[in-house]
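Researcher: Predict the fold of Galactokinase.
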Amino acid sequence: MRTESISRVARPVRACLSGEDLDWLGGRSVCVALDLCTTVELAESGGNTEWSAEIWTFLKERIPALPPEPPPVRVTSRAPLASGLSSSTALILGLFAVFVPAASGISRDQVIQWAYEFEFAICNGGGMDHLAIALGGVTLFHGRPAGLPEVGGRIGLPAEWSVVVIDSGTPKSTPDHIRSVRAQCAAGDPVLAEYLARSDDASGVVWKGIQEEDLEMVSTGMAAAHEAMRDCQQMSTPLLEQLRVRAYQTAGMTLKVSGAGGGGALVGVCATADVPALTSALRAAYQQSYPGVQVLVAAPAPSLS
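Model: Structure tokens for Galactokinase follow.
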């Protein structure tokens, strides 16, 4: 085992509160890191996980002194997979963290850049997921067409707020979604332009609501963001809409799809004091009609220096 390496890391996932795809289309996005962590640790024996060999090959091209084969690792995750919470990016960042030798002198910023470049080659997306997970807390991004987005602001989610995650149990495909949106972009699709404008406005409302600790304003912005995703980009589904309606009717909860859509999870922000009653009501409402749905509660992952 390479004792000079970090042997165990935990990386949060992220929920996008507004502005999917705007990290590379341009405009503002708001993400919060959540403590549904993916943990990667070096193991004495055993196999490797998804991306181990590919990341090791990527790193060997940049750090020639690495051994021929990657060390075995063990991975656990608290987040539902293929849910739009960027659990795959959390895994990739975790693998980079344990594979890059601490003695190499390679900075954290360089590791984040490498992780972005590695994943960009797979799905051709933006970089807000990597930065949101690496930085923790809540991050405002200003998108740009190439490279990592600009960080426009960082703040902690108010301590008395929590994030509720409704996992629909239906997976989504990020690469297919990004391929479709890039085709729209290349064609100058006016519907995409409308989506960008509406989502950018929604992100501004969400960010201001968090700054002012105004939960109603945050919910209003998230609702506008979801409606832009649904109406312009067909990123919602009948099941997700049913879950949204049931949540609002049952508990007054505003939910928004997170990630590429077409499945995955819905997220909402609420007062922590309301969590027990709210989640109990939601689970009871979903139990019979939607048995595959999970109701999870996540705390914001702390903002890192």
